[in-house]
Amino acid sequence: MNRKVKFALAGGVGAAALAAMVLVPGQLALSADHFDPPLRTDPRPGFDPTPDRLADIADVFAFYDATNVYLSLTVHTRDATSASPLSDIYDRDVLYALNVSTDTNAATTEVPIRFRFGPATNGTGFGVRYEGLPGLSGNLDCRVEQLDCQSGGVRAYAGLRNDPFFFDLQGFRETTAMGTLRFNPNRDFFGGKNILTVVLQIPRASLNTNQISVWGTTARLGGQL
After folding, report:
1. Cα–Cα distance, 196 to 167 (Å, whole number)
2. What distances in angstroms separate CA 199 from CA 116, 149, 150, 155, 223, one per listed residue?
3. pTM of the predicted protein model
């Protein structure tokens, strides 16, 4: 599954958050957000029918300031808490990616950033390995929930956080049923719910462009999402 956003890195501070995919004329647009993939698993007979929440992308966010670009991918772990087994939050069989296009063809990936979870390199708990980070010659290994993991101007974080996506699900359902707007800005269906969140801080200079497109993808070893 994937989500995509395109924005220009102008002066000052900017932000983009995906409520829908940016459409590029003449190109096939594939996207999904919270709970959107069909069954969130492979529906073919003989495959696992269980919703694959650890490969279900919720949102992709992109922000920038005068110095850095900030990219974030969130993945559904709605039943997880800080007391949940780490294997129920950090799945070593899912390959996550933030794909960055830096040229005029927004469908190409010039900066493929990949990350996977597994045992921490120090042998305690779980860690995450980032590959393809711009400006770094090698990989970046961090512990989950580590706030100070950085190298060469790149900073990375992965862990459970409060879902940043704001949405009034009750208002949406009432609006579609009644045909009149029923949204209430004081209702947030996702408020207080945990979600697996990966955040990257990348120096703008390492991208060598003032306009980028970003999308997230997941791939499961074994053939699910």
Report:
1. 18
2. 14, 11, 12, 8, 26
3. 0.79
Give the strand order in the sheet containing 154-162.
Answer: 14-17, 57-64, 68-75, 194-203, 154-162, 149-151
> Which tokens sit at 204?
């703008």
Please provide residue 177's backbone torsions phi and psi, each rounded to the nearest 5 degrees: -80, -35
Strand order in the sheet with 126-131: 2-8, 211-220, 94-101, 111-119, 126-131, 140-143
pLDDT: which is higher, 10 or 138: 138
Q: What is the pLDDT of residues 61-104, one digit of tens each?
A: 999 999 999 999 999 876 677 777 787 889 999 999 999 999 88
Contact 18, 59 (CB under 8 A): yes
